[in-house]
Amino acid sequence: MFARLTRIGTAWQLSRAVAGHPPPLLVGPDGAVELLDRTTGVALVPTITRPRAAAHLSVPDGSTLLMYTDGLVEHRGVNLSESIADLCRLAAATAGCPLDEVCDRLLRYAPGSDDVALLAARVAGPTR
């Protein structure tokens, strides 16, 4: 997975490419959660030089971007879509929490049978 947050004027833009990872989540400051579509492409390896598909999205100030590996949401006997929906509900409840608390609460959801990586980034408002 590759993601870049860029400030363009007073707004943030997210550019991302995903190669088989679960879809990132964007949690708004109000707790609204957007499951970012599965823009997929080939694996991110240096020997592949063809262009990769990328998606671009405006990101509101105060939003939190969550990217994670499948180890966070793959629960034995539970449909993956249901697990991701559960993760969305948990993420919504963390809106406005400090990022370390967001990560702690979401990592408790992991079943513990696979390795897990979780990256949380929050975009700030304009500096004055």
Task: Tell me what you see in this structure.
By secondary structure, this protein is of the alpha+beta class. It is 17% helix and 27% strand. The chain has two helices and seven strands; from the N terminus they run ββββββααβ. Strands 4-3-6-7 form a four-stranded antiparallel sheet, covered by helices on one side. The longest helix is centred in the C-terminal third of the chain and has 13 residues, at 80-92. The N and C termini lie far apart (32 Å). The relative contact order is 0.22. The model has no long low-confidence stretch (mean pLDDT 83).
Topology:
Elements: E1 2-8, E2 11-17, E3 25-27, E4 33-35, E5 55-59, E6 64-68, H1 80-92, H2 99-107, E7 118-122
In short:
The protein is an alpha+beta fold and 128 residues long.
What does the largest sheet look like?
4 strands, antiparallel
Strand content: 25-35%
Number of strands: 7
What count of helical segments does DSSP give? 2
Structural class by SSE content: alpha+beta
Mean pLDDT: 83
Give the end-to-end Cα distance, rounded to a whole number of Å: 32 Å
Could you give the order of the helices and strands?
EEEEEEHHE
Keywords, separated by commas or semicolons:
alpha+beta, 17% helix, globular, four-stranded antiparallel beta sheet, 7 strands
